[in-house]
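Researcher: Sequence recovery benchmark, item below. Answer with residues only.
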């Protein structure tokens, strides 16, 4: 019995084991007038997502959707900053509680991947026209997915109290 108790209290947290390296090739790039990262004010920014011409045929049917999900690489985050803070105050506001970076929308991530749902304004050849994409000009786009409310919306989703208490545009 004592041996079982000792094993229980001296247990090490589980380790994921070896992790496979990932290599990705962007499928396109963001084009807009925003040159420097910023906080907020993205709602009225219109952007073009220019995809590689060789994959333009993959857009067939996408114009039937009102919104898309865009996954992109936050290329302006310096390598030495990526994953440099495991805990932080969201939006660098000390009035927000200290959180683990994975509980925030901070750009200081281990892998600087951005994700935003945006209205799809138009599809023309290999170019998607969108509004509200929080990515600067030149941002590599990793993937596009159609937004399907039945799968992607979670009406009863719970969020941390600090998110509702900010009175600002959601944390990004």
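Model:
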């Amino acid at each position: 019995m004592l041996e079982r108790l000792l094993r229980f209290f001296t247990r090490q947290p589980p380790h994921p084991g070896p992790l496979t390296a990932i290599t990705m090739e962007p499928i396109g790039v963001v084009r807009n007038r925003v040159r420097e990262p910023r906080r907020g004010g993205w709602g009225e920014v219109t952007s073009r997502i220019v995809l590689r011409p060789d994959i333009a045929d993959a857009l067939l049917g996408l114009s039937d959707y009102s919104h898309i999900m865009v996954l992109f690489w936050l290329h302006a985050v310096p390598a030495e900053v990526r994953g440099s803070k495991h805990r932080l105050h969201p939006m660098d506001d000390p009035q927000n509680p200290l959180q683990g970076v994975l509980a925030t929308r901070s750009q200081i991530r281990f892998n600087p991947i951005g994700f935003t749902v945006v209205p799809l304004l138009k599809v023309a050849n290999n170019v998607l026209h969108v509004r509200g994409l929080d990515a600067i000009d030149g941002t590599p786009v990793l993937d596009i997915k159609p937004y399907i409310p039945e799968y992607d919306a979670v009406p009863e989703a719970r969020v941390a109290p600090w998110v509702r208490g900010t009175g600002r545009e959601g944390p990004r």
